[in-house]
Amino acid sequence: MGLIDTAALSCGVSGLMLMENAGTAVARAIVRRFRPCRVLVLAGPGNNGGDGYVAARRLAERGWPVAVAPLAPPRPASDAAAAAALWRGPVVAADEGRVQSAELVIDAVFGAGLARDVDPGTVALLGAARRLVAIDVPSGVDGATGAVRGAAPRADLTVTFAGLKPGHLLFPGRALCGETVCAEIGMPAAAFARVETKTWRNTPVLWRLPAPAATGHKYERGHLTILAGPMSGAAILAAAAARRIGAGLVTLAGPDPAGVPPGIIVSRAALDELVTDPRRRVWLCGPGLGVEAAGQTLARLVAAGRAIVADADALTSAAGEAERLRGVAAITPHEGEFARVFPDLQADRLSRARAAAARIGAVVVLKGPDTVIAAPDGRAAINANAPPFLATAGSGDTLAGIAAGLLVQGMPAFEACCAAVWLHGAAATRAGGGLIAEDLADHLPMVVENIKKFNF
Ligand SMILES: NC(=O)C1=CN([C@@H]2O[C@H](COP(=O)(O)OP(=O)(O)OC[C@H]3O[C@@H](n4cnc5c(N)ncnc54)[C@H](O)[C@@H]3O)[C@@H](O)[C@H]2O)[C@@H](O)CC1
Ligand SMILES: Nc1ncnc2c1ncn2[C@@H]1O[C@H](COP(=O)(O)OP(=O)(O)O)[C@@H](O)[C@H]1O
Ligand SMILES: [K+]
After folding, report:
1. Is 399 in the pocket of ligand 2 (CB under 6 A)?
2. Do 368 and 349 touch, CB atoms closer than 8 A?
3. CATH code, domain carrying 168
4. Which residues contact 353 (CB under 8 A, 6 or more apart)?
5. Does the annotation flag 452 for ligand binding?
6. Which ligand minimizes its atom distance to the CA of 173?
7. Rg (Cα) of the chain, in Å, rounded?
8. Does any ligand 2 atom lie closer than 6 A to the CB of residue 434?
């Protein structure tokens, strides 16, 4: 049972009532999406199975032909046993033939109580379903991590309760859930208050974007310095994104590259001179810089106490030496860079990002289709709005530019990184398929406008 379920019970809410509401929500979600058809409920021994018995009863009440196939009897005197006792319809043996002939199968085998790998017999049964609706999670998906224990079926619809779990947002679990519905089941507010939440889905309710002061000047909006190296395109992409997200002034520090837009300042001054300028508080270090140069400049910036977003070559320069990143504000590794810097961290993405953030005392943005943003104090957000066509060269440079552009405007590092990742995904969605990295920055202003309009 999850922490929130336990908290609900200690608030005086009955488990049976929650189960009744959960099963009813499953039936409602099914009725809304499918025509009446022959349904088979595969019921496990715990509360997930109990939800299945309730869903069976609710569908049967609406005239749907339903049978329940228990994979194991409910534990005696449990809520699930009480729900099973109220089921008056057919109880059949769980075999593959029955599963195949059902027009819709409800997976009520394991939910939050999944404790070990699912046995091959159960895997085969679930795999035989033509159309599958999973209660809470597809059985075999670990709700805490999105990992698959043994095997898990691909559901057409997953109905969960009270709040999405990490496993609904992290791959591979996310891909197995199909459409995901989160139903309200009467969980009392006091139960939520008792459980300290440290993991969220990344949405605009988590952060507030900076607004320019009516009388502010460009330096007050923030002066970002981006180190530019031999692959100057990366720094130019980052600069464009930082400017579009509202940085008042962006300087590229390094050799004067070709094709720099006129609004970007290029400085060839020595690093020692730039780093001692008190107005240059925030720096982006890494994209296109070259590993050796990135390592040297990173050390100099850290020593000067600057707020740094470290990406790309700056991360590779710290391969196997994560302590070199201590003192930065945020790092933005993809899986390859993460593995280089933290070769000993092997757990799921959420745990790894958290452990890395705690180790270096900085925000870690572990990029991918399910980017995880983790703070050193244990807070973490999982992002789910990035379309797959965001995987294109230069899009990471753009993300680093957005994050640095928000940091320079005074957002705290965790909020700046969460906002950057969400805005990046939203800009990509707005740009549509065929997107190239150069497109992203131009979509940021409308994405920001929409956030304001919908008053998130
Ligand atoms: N009690 C509550 O407050 C609520 C619980 N709900 C439901 O309760 C579910 C969690 O119920 P439970 O904690 O009873 O857990 P489950 O029903 O997920 O499974 C528990 C049982 O399965 C066994 N088990 C776990 N993994 C197994 C494996 N791989 N092979 C064989 N047996 C295995 C466990 O030992 C245990 O006996 C949620 O997913 C949700 O569906 C909902 O009714 C909403 C409210
Ligand atoms: N399958 C995917 N779906 C959605 N977003 C993705 C996917 N793969 C990668 N991304 C995102 O694309 C960006 C790629 O960054 P990165 O690998 O650093 O690229 P580059 O170095 O070329 O700029 C990251 O923000 C990452 O989260
Ligand atoms: K399930």
Report:
1. yes
2. yes
3. 3.40.50.10260
4. 364, 366, 372, 373, 374, 380
5. no
6. 3
7. 26
8. no
The verdict on 310 and 399 lying in the same domain is yes
Last residue of a domain, one of 170, 197, 224: 197
In whole angstroms, give the CA distance from residue 329 to residue 404.
Answer: 10
- In 3-state terms, what secondary structure has residue 308? strand
Cβ atoms 182, 162 nearer than 8 A:
yes
Instruction: Kindly state whether residues 254 and 179 are assigned to the same domain.
Output: no
Domain-ending residue, one of 167, 197, 227: 197
Task: Say which residues have a Cβ less than 8 Å from residue 321's Cβ, sequence separation at least 6.
Answer: 341
Ligand 1, CB within 6 Å, residue ranges: 1, 5, 8, 15, 18-19, 22, 44-49, 51, 110-119, 135-136, 161, 185
Structure tokens at 44: 């496990």
- Number of structural domains in the chain: 2
Residues 211 and 97 in one domain: no
Interface TM-score (ipTM) > 0.90: yes
What whole-number distance in Å separates Cα of residue 334 and Cα of residue 326?
Answer: 18
Ligand 1 pocket test: pick from 3, 4, 5 the residue with the most ligand atoms within 8 Å of its Cβ: 5
Residue-wise pLDDT for 104-160, tens only, equals 999 999 999 999 999 999 999 999 999 999 999 999 999 999 999 999 999 999 999
pLDDT tens profile 264-323: 999 999 999 999 999 999 999 999 999 999 999 999 999 999 999 999 999 999 999 999
- Structural domain of 19: 3-197
Considering the entire predicted model, what is its pTM?
A: 0.96
Nearest-CA residue for ligand 1 atom 35 is 115
Please report how the helices 413-431 and 437-453 are oriented relative to each other, as an axis angle in degrees rounded to 10: 110
Residue 117 tokens read as 């790998």
Q: Which of 395, 402, 429, 439 to mutate to test the pocket of ligand 2 (most atoms within 8 A of CB)?
A: 395
Determine the distance separating the centroid of ligand 1 and the alpha carbon of 46, expressed in angstroms.
4
Tell me: is residue 311 an annotated ligand-binding position.
Answer: no
Quickly state the pLDDT bin for 191 (edges 50, 70, 90). confident
Residue 323 shares a structural domain with residue 377: yes
Q: How far is CA 122 from CA 107, 110, 138, 140, 373, in A?
A: 11, 10, 12, 10, 35
Residues 192 and 265 in one domain: no
Shared-domain flag, residues 268 and 380: yes
Per-residue pLDDT band at 456 (split at 50, 70, 90): low
378 in the same domain as 268: yes
Q: What is the CATH number of the domain that holds 279?
A: 3.40.1190.20
Ligand closest in space to the Cα of 424: 2
Q: What is the number of the ligand closest to the CA of 1?
A: 1
Whether residues 261 and 354 share a domain: the answer is: yes
